[in-house]
Amino acid sequence: MKVIFRCTSCEVINDIPIQHQFRFCRNCGRIVTYSPREAILSEESSNNIFFKSKQLSDSLAVDFFKLADKAESSIMELVKKHEEKQTPLLDLQAATLNDTVLLILEKSETNELDELIRHCSNFNINLAELEKIVIKLRKEGIVFLPKGWLINLI
Hints:
The protein has helices at residues 48-53, 58-70, 72-84, 97-107, 113-122, 127-139, and strands spanning 2-6, 13-17, 22-24, 31-33, 39-42, 143-144, 152-153. The chain is built from six helices and seven strands. By secondary structure, it is α+β, with helices and mostly antiparallel strands. The two termini are 29 Å apart. It has two domains: 2-84, no CATH class; 97-153, Arc Repressor Mutant, subunit A (Orthogonal Bundle), CATH 1.10.10. The strands form three sheets. A three-stranded antiparallel sheet has the order 2-1-5.
């Protein structure tokens, strides 16, 4: 089961397994998530028309948002479950935000973007700062993204 939703920045359709909340947009690379009335639940093979279209045409948008309205309560439950997840507080000694993010990645048990974001929020690193740091680390060849919702050290 996956969640299919639009990137709020470039409007490209993204998908993510239901056990994850955040991913890097497959088009613009921004960190994106889904919200009620903006996402649908999909089996692996069903609703591929939306995902394959990349951006919704007018007719596909009508169909997509009809399904999104029907899926609103299910999406709300998923969002609530993700928000209730607890992350243990890490004791890190880092001089810079980049070092903090690297240390979090080193201590990561799952390599999930969700886990990284929750840990970064404990250190007051917001999504915009985290995006910049990840872009820099990718350019330097320190991290790579095997999937849109995973981030690994090289």
